[in-house]
Write a structure and sequence with these properties.
Blueprint (H helix, E strand, L loop, with lengths): L1 H17 L69 E6 L7 E4 L5 E4 L3 E4 L5 H12 L8 E7 L4 E6 L5 E4 L6 H7 L12 E5 L2 E5 L1 H5 L13 E4 L1
Length: 232
């Protein structure tokens, strides 16, 4: 009996050692998987997008104004016409027909107008004469408006005298120089002093060397109304 009991106990021990211990998985317990949230500690962060460098603003280059080229002024080919004795004028005074007059420049170079009396006209341009008349009328009128119209002109004259073949007055047409006037006088006589020709202009006396002029050594000398060329 004792032997049987020992045998039974031995059988039970060997059976217990052969039976593996149950694990939670074999016992039917469900295994839960917990997904880690993105971005929490323990997860591999996604690489950050490269930072976009701020746009650089390039300051505009200073604008340089284009260089301006000023064309040189050229002298007028002809000066304003200057009145001479014998010229006929129309003087218009705005809104005053009694003061408006047709006049002719007298040999003394003057004209006569109501209120303004004698006014020097010869040697002046029409604009200069207008300003002179306005100045005279301001004593009697407030802001007079005056217009000077040249109706008819007398060609100005120059004079050639002395040792030339055709002495006398000549009309001054356009810009005439001394050489042209001497050519119109048909040249010199045999004993003319062509190196020392005089040009009388009012109280002024100019000298002119014909020989140098024809060779281009001197500048042209242009004549003015009333000039007198004397060839000795």
């Amino acid at each position: 009996m004792k032997t049987l009991t020992s045998f039974s106990l031995l059988f039970l021990l060997s059976t217990a050692s052969a039976t593996p211990a149950q694990t939670p998985a074999s016992s039917g317990a469900a295994v839960r998987q917990v997904a880690q949230p993105v971005g929490t500690a323990g997860s591999t962060p996604a690489p950050a997008a490269p930072a976009t460098p701020p746009a650089t603003t390039t300051a505009p280059a200073p604008t340089t104004a284009p260089a301006t080229t000023t064309a040189p002024r050229t002298a007028a080919t002809t000066a304003d016409y200057r009145l001479v004795p014998g010229d006929k004028l129309r003087i218009e005074v705005y809104k005053d027909p009694q003061l408006s007059q047709n006049v002719q420049i007298r040999p003394d170079g003057k004209i006569t107008l109501p209120l303004a009396n004698d006014v020097v006209a010869a040697g002046r341009t029409s604009t200069e004469l207008r300003d002179s008349i306005i100045s005279s009328l301001k004593t009697y009128m407030s802001n007079p408006t005056v217009t000077v119209i040249v109706v008819e002109t007398v060609p100005p004259l120059i004079y050639v005298m002395g040792e030339v073949n055709s002495a006398g007055p000549q009309p001054l047409v356009g810009k005439m120089d001394v050489l042209q006037a001497l050519a119109t006088a048909k040249g010199f006589k045999d004993f003319a002093d062509t190196k020392n020709i005089l040009i009388k202009r009012g109280t002024q006396v100019l000298t002119f060397n014909y020989n140098d002029a024809v060779k281009g050594k001197t500048a042209a000398v242009f004549l003015q109304p009333g000039d007198t060329i004397v060839v000795r």
